[in-house]
Specification:
Chain lengths: 325, 365
């Protein structure tokens, strides 16, 4: 389990004077689900292309399954399934025929290809659409077919580039659950690139944060949030019932409450935004806050204990990045 | 199958007879039966057992795509119709086409491809006109449509070499064109044979086969040109228009431009012979930049055996020659430069598109 299946050392890629990927070091262990996160144009796709040997790095080395992707891309592509961003299929072939074509490109006989394709279509939940033309597939179905297409070569690693893009929320949930299930069943290593942070955080064991071609943070989500929010690990959001019709009265009430809350020991700071209170605390003081608000005579509308998601981590890093400049 | 059942029945009848030798014979036949039975089985399952090389998987997919596509079928229909039309005019005019002292009198069969009464152009004219269109239609969306559909990066992430795709695309289109032209050529020959009742001689047959090869080569040039544009341009419409623009330029405007140049640099009427000859050679060479000119020259030489030279001849050179057809080998020698020229242009286009495809970074759409 501890074997490193993907090793990137000092990887750099330049397009003219623009550096897309800058001195990237990254290792991914076998069986892990790794999320490569970052905004558009951060160099995620370029990194993936270099892992597959589809583009050559300017310097540094890529080893996938112990094989150098730059010098021996065919062997790497035999072991790695890649689902490109916005995957396409041959519209005039059925979903099954598309899969069989991929299977046969992977040196399978016609019989095994058809059998295996059928099985995979059932597994990804496309049993009814098997003989439908791929051109008639919806976006979500295309992604499922793409997943089957990736799995047909019995890969050790699967790389999914923005797999949740353009699918509706339920579709995303189902799709991610499918990925998780398949990876656990087959013992696959999964690399997901995405800019939809909260979607990917549900299934990733570890994430890497990628901005402007640099990996600026790496680790599991708990570690990342601890590192980032060490001074105020708890964030509580509180809404107070505001009875008055007058806006100034309302904000006066909120300010009064916020001043009161600052006196509680453990509360570090209180911010108000659109009459909602954001209370940063060093420890969990939710009961105290509730009591204080009720005692003050104001109605407590709701109280949410917020956990930091990747959105917050990402925003925090991005803010940090802007501050440096 | 019927053959096997007959043997089977025979075997049963023979089984009834008690003759020892016949029984032995029957056993032999049983063996044969078993053998053929096994063969039948294996041929049924060979497609399941043998693993085709990925390259041929792509080629076979491309061929089936072409054959099923509308654009190919429409063009195929047009070409078949025009060929039948030109064959009809050739057949109705073939009797008047042969004159008593015609040196090509012995080559009646070749006239099927060249004769016309002016209402409909002849077979070769149709091929030289529609062939480029066919080549362009098979190649203009070869690479860019894969890119726009988002299939290119998916195919490239399979364990195949990158050049498989472009080579397979070229080969598949070439196979489709070859099958089509040979079928068409032999169809015209067959129909002509039925109608005029005179079989072609071996030389005529060879000339026609060479003509078909030449047509394939000519279409292959346009195919490669359009593949080149399909690598260069992102939009299929752009590459189609660019290919058609090149075709229109060469087939219509280029000769006009050459005419303009010819008028401008024309020597005076009473200039010495060598100046007039070099002038005519210069104009001819200008025209020969165009692939259709090369194709026309080559086909006329191949299908009209009396053609002895493609350039100007002086009276001294012609003096004393007997107006008779020349053998196939000599005709081929005359068109050899044209043939190599066409081949070179084809290979050049393919090399450029191959190079730029190999160096391209393949991203999703």
């Amino acid at each position: 389990m501890d074997r490193n299946i993907i090793e990137l050392v000092g990887l750099t890629k330049q397009y003219g004077s623009f550096t897309a990927v800058d001195q990237l070091n990254l290792t991914i262990k076998k069986g892990e689900i790794f999320g490569l996160l970052g905004p558009n144009g951060a160099g995620k796709s370029t990194t993936i292309l270099m892992m597959l040997g589809l583009t050559e790095p300017a310097s540094g080395s890529v080893r996938v399954c112990g094989i150098n992707s730059t010098t021996n891309p065919i062997e790497v592509k035999r072991r790695v399934g890649y689902l490109p961003e916005d995957v396409g299929f041959y519209d005039d072939l059925t979903g099954l025929e598309n899969l069989v074509f991929t299977a046969r490109l992977n040196n399978m006989s016609n019989k095994t290809a058809v059998e295996k394709s059928r099985k995979l279509m059932v597994r990804v939940g496309l049993t009814d659409a098997m003989n439908k033309k791929a051109g008639k597939y919806s976006r979500g179905m295309r992604q499922r077919l793409g997943l089957a297409d990736v799995l047909i070569k019995n890969p050790e690693v699967i790389i999914l580039d923005e797999p949740t893009l353009g699918i509706d929320p339920t579709g995303v949930k189902e799709f991610l659950e499918l990925i998780m299930k398949l990876s656990k069943e087959e013992g696959l290593t999964v690399l997901i690139s995405s800019h939809h942070l909260h979607q990917v955080q549900q299934i990733c064991d570890r994430v890497g944060l990628f901005i402007n071609g640099k990996l600026i943070a790496e680790g599991d989500i708990a570690t990342l949030s601890q590192k980032l929010f060490s001074n105020e690990p708890y964030m509580i959001e509180a809404g107070v019932i505001l009875s008055s019709k007058d806006e100034t009265d309302n904000s006066a009430t909120v300010t009064k409450v916020s001043d009161m809350l600052k006196d509680i020991s453990g509360v570090i700071n209180v911010r108000t935004e659109n009459n909602i209170l954001y209370i940063g605390c060093s420890r969990d003081v939710t009961p105290d806050i509730a009591r204080k608000i009720v005692e003050s005579g104001n109605g407590l509308n709701y109280l949410v204990k917020k956990e930091y998601g990747l959105d917050d981590i990402y925003n925090r890093y991005f803010e940090g990045g802007n501050n440096h400049e | 199958m019927i053959f096997i059942t007959v043997i089977l029945k025979e075997g049963i009848i023979m089984n009834d007879s008690l003759n020892e030798s016949i029984t032995r014979n029957k056993q032999k036949k049983r063996k044969f039966l078993n053998f053929s039975g096994r063969r039948k089985n294996s041929s049924l399952f060979t497609s399941d057992e043998d693993i085709l090389h990925p390259f041929w998987i792509i080629v076979s997919k491309e061929i089936s795509d072409h054959v099923k596509s509308w654009k190919f079928n429409i063009l195929f229909g047009i070409i078949v119709l025009t060929c039948l039309g030109s064959l009809y005019t050739a057949l109705t005019n073939i009797s008047s086409a042969i004159k008593p002292n015609d040196p090509e009198g012995a080559f009646i069969f070749l006239k099927l491809f060249t004769v016309s009464d002016g209402t409909l152009p002849s077979f070769i004219v149709f091929i030289s006109f529609l062939g480029p269109l066919l080549g362009i239609s098979l190649g203009f969306d070869a690479i860019n449509s894969e890119h726009n559909k988002g299939t290119l990066s998916r195919i490239m992430s399979q364990p195949i070499h990158r050049d498989y795709l472009i080579n397979a695309k070229f080969l598949a289109a070439l196979i489709v064109i070859s099958v089509m032209f040979f079928a068409l050529g032999f169809l015209v020959m067959g129909l002509g044979l039925i109608k005029i009742g005179i079989p072609p001689t071996a030389e005529e047959f060879m000339r026609i086969v060479f003509f078909i090869f030449l047509s394939i080569l000519y279409v292959a040039f346009w195919l490669n040109l359009s593949i080149l544009f399909s690598v260069q341009f992102r939009q299929a419409a752009t590459s189609a228009l660019a290919s058609i623009a090149v075709w229109l330029f060469f087939s219509i405007f280029y000769s006009m431009i050459v005419n303009l140049i010819a008028n401008a640099v024309a020597p005076p009427e009473f200039a010495p012979t060598h100046i007039i000859i070099s002038y005519q050679k210069f104009i001819l060479n200008l025209l020969r930049i165009v692939p259709s000119q090369l194709f026309d020259e080559a086909t006329t030489t191949l299908l009209m055996p009396s053609v002895r030279s493609l350039g100007p001849l002086t009276m001294e050179q012609v003096h004393g020659t007997i107006p008779s057809p020349i053998p196939l080998g000599q005709s081929l020698l005359i068109v050899w430069p044209q043939l190599t020229g066409l081949l070179a242009a084809t290979i050049l286009c393919f090399a450029i598109s191959y190079r730029s495809f190999m160096r391209r970074e393949i991203r999703s759409r």
